Amino acid sequence: MSRIPVVSTKDAGLFTKFVYRFARRRYGAVPEPFAVSAHHIGLLAAGAVHELAVEKASRTLPVNVREIAVYRTAVRLGCSWCVDFGMMLQKHEGLDINRLKHIDEYATSPYFSSQERLAIAYADAMTTTPVTVTVTDEQVAELEREFGRKGVLELTYQISLENMRGRLNSALGITDQGFTSGEACRVPLPGLA
């Protein structure tokens, strides 16, 4: 149970009901971060527009590289909601989620490509606090050689965004919701149906 209760469908305004309907179609249920954010319509709208814009713009990196970096960030932050949701997204992209149990051994595991290893190491460096001493010029240069400047910017943005999501969810007590319990999220939130 989150620290701030969700806004139920019956208590939601027109815009929130639209967001909930869109989320249900897309994910099978309303993600709890949406339902908690619905207490502040301006931030719900800003977050929804931002997420959709970032999704549309993020086309430079291979999907497996982007998703594994975001997933690793969620793991490092300990955001169970983000881990759960991230696994579902990877599953929907046709990626092997069974390999995720080997994420801590990514540097030597045959389950991860060299590109994925670079992205995971960068996610680790960016998620460590303080970041000023962990991300190196050499690391960014190697990423630029592999993915180009546009790819480095996309990777950096995605990892930064996941840091924000994970810290927000943690502060609000939002935990896993059951997204990976089936083919898609089929677990509706109480009071939202």
From TrEMBL:
Entry superkingdom: Bacteria
Q: Which InterPro entries match?
A: AhpD-like (IPR029032)
Q: What is this protein called?
A: Carboxymuconolactone decarboxylase family protein
Organism of origin = Amycolatopsis pithecellobii
